[in-house]
Amino acid sequence: MGAQSRLIPYHLPLRFFVAAALFHVAAWLLLTVGHADIAGYAGGPGIVLASLHALTLGALAMTAMGAAYQLLNVATGITTGLAMGRFDVASISSWLYIPGTVLLVAGMADGNNTAMLLGGGLVVSGLIAFAVIIGNIFYRTVALKATMRHGWAALVCMVFLAVAGLVLIVDFELGFLGTSALPERADLAFSHAILGGFGFMGLLVLGFSYILIPMFALSPAPNERQSGLSLSLILCGLALAVPAALAGNKLALLLAAAIGLAGVAVHLMIMRKVLREGMKKRLGMSFVMVRSGWIALPLSIGIGGLAAVAPETFNLPPLFIFILIFGWLLTFLTGILQRILPFLTSMHAHKLGQRAPRLSEMGDQGITLKMHAVCHGGALLLVSAGIVGDVDALILIGGLTGSLGAAAFLWFTIGVGKLVVGFYAKDKRAQHP
Amino acid sequence: MVIRWQQTDGMHLDLRGMYPPEPMIEILREIDCGAAGPIIVHMDRDPILLYPELEDRGWSAQHHPGGVPSEMAPHAKQAPVILVLKPEPNSD
Lengths: 433, 92
Known about the structure:
- The structure holds 2 protein chains of 2 kinds.
- By secondary structure, chain A is mostly helical.
- Chain A has one domain: Up-down Bundle (Cytochrome C Oxidase, Chain A), CATH 1.20.210.
- Chain A has 14 helices and 2 strands.
- In chain A, a hairpin with a 2-residue loop joins β1 and β2 (87-88).
- In chain A, α10 (250-277) packs antiparallel against α11 and α11 (284-309) runs antiparallel to α12.
- In chain A, 57% of the residues are buried.
- Chain B is α+β, with helices and mostly antiparallel strands.
- Helices cover 20% and strands 29% of the residues of chain B.
- Chain B has a 5-stranded mixed sheet with strand order 1-2-3-5-4, covered by helices on one side.
- Chain B has helices spanning 22-32, 50-56, and strands spanning 3-7, 10-14, 39-43, 59-63, 81-87.
- Classes of the chains: A mainly alpha, B alpha+beta.
- Chain A binds chain B through residues 1-3, 6-7, 74-75, 77, 143-144, 211, 214-215, 218-221, 279, 342-343, 346-347, 350, 356, 358-359, and chain B through 19-22, 24-25, 28-29, 32, 44-46, 48-49, 51-53, 55-56, 63, 80-81.
């Protein structure tokens, strides 16, 4: 099977990537608007919840979906082309997921339950379509075991995550949580965060790392037994953390954090070996972001463990969520996305027999990615300091700085996207002069 | 395991049975070690992520026109993807 038949239409991953870049800006802007409520945030609808979900669903999961559609069929040799009648399931997932996320985030910002329910339903439907596509690839793939195992575990977490999310939305209206044997709302929200940050998104990211990091560093595939050990430890940590969060058991949460840290330590050692053995040593700005994300990953688990035992100290619960979502996942994914997007463009240029600019010259990287990295790093420090010190002004300045960085990243994404659109326009002109 | 042999049309590398990114690493290692080209690679799948790396090194890839006659390969079964890799004429 040739490249042409395995490359999915460029507009499919691109629509996810552009949407992710827009939600990335929206998330920082919402955080800026809601700066006064961040440090003391204890749950509930409003701007803070909208910012959080603009980032998790809008930027992070959106990027993961686009990247999975683009890369899995290339890496495994199995096509993503599942169809329902005239429409392919990947397109259907985008039609459900992207507007669903817009509606859900808007509903959260406005406190509108109907919008949240409708948006949540569309988001979950889009995720189910996504799960069907990548589950089909996982099922048919015999190689890349580390990625496939992480992928299956991520999909299982996604089911629990979606159920918990929908229950939380319904509870805004009905307020049944905390009655009879049901968990408290705050406890379910905490387990929802663990399932989303470390379970669904975390496992997808760690799993894809076993393909992408060796690919970018040009290094042999990592040892599958070691990646299996890392995954086993992380799953043990998750299996302990989720029920412990639901039951409000602090000791079990601390133990889960320690087990999770051990699993992450194994993963990071594997990644260090991959980079050390890689043919490519100069990996550019993207790996500054990737490495920074790797620092934030164990930090987020450590802060999470501390937040469980001493929630009143230094506003640790909101700090935990911020470092987990904005620090680890966002930093890492923007690092990866700045490599995947130029690859997308280059692959399609090759398919059309056209010459693409060098990867390092796409999307005004000299300005956009440097500006993003500086602003993103600054924003992480400012907002973290603002949360710890309870200084709203620092969170405000951090939010504005993060918004500027996200706007630079959007500029990069659109710049690279315009290139691939241009290739197809040129091809069309050549065919129909 | 990489199987290599020399033919009149260039150096052949049989990279079948390897999973990403190993075939790509073998090819780039060959180029980085100073291969003059052409290199004909026999693979299970089209190495899409390889092309930008080749471009960065001033090499180009073309699908072998009509495939390679099976007697040229040491294995009876012909590879699904056969690429001819050459340095670009104007590259350093």
